[in-house]
Write a structure and sequence with these properties.
single chain; alpha+beta; Immunoglobulin-like; ten-stranded mixed β-sheet
Amino acid sequence: MATDRKRDSHESLIMRASLSLIALAAPLALAACGDPAPTYIDQAWVRLSPNKDTPSAGYFVAHGGDAATQLRGVLTDYALKVEMHESMDHDGMMMMQKIDSVDIPAKGKVAFAPGGKHLMIWGINDTAISRGKMTFTFLLANGDRLLVDAVIQKPGTPAPAPKEEPKAH
């Protein structure tokens, strides 16, 4: 009888240990089944042109999710027209060229920044200017449409400080 109690106690201990391991492993297993990381846009801002008849420029950072995609266009209700452009050095002379799409690599990032890729924005309306921000719709090749607010910087105002990336531990 004492042997049966020892065996039952031992089996009970093994069962409790097994259940503890399952309880600890469950969150890890569930995390692996989570939704894929999405592509997102942040740090969006617009440098307002000092001359209302010339285009303003827009900047942002596109962060790739788990799958690569392309930025195919940018729309807004707060301006007459938006185009993607890229500044490049051509035989020692800086030139600007319209671009139709931009690859966003999986888990990578693409910066639209002064001196490189940027948005050209014609005819920003007075409502957006007085609010100090405007909303853009970013059109991705995977069918996603990302709505992002961009802060409007008046001429002569310094660019917003770039956001620091979180550091891995």
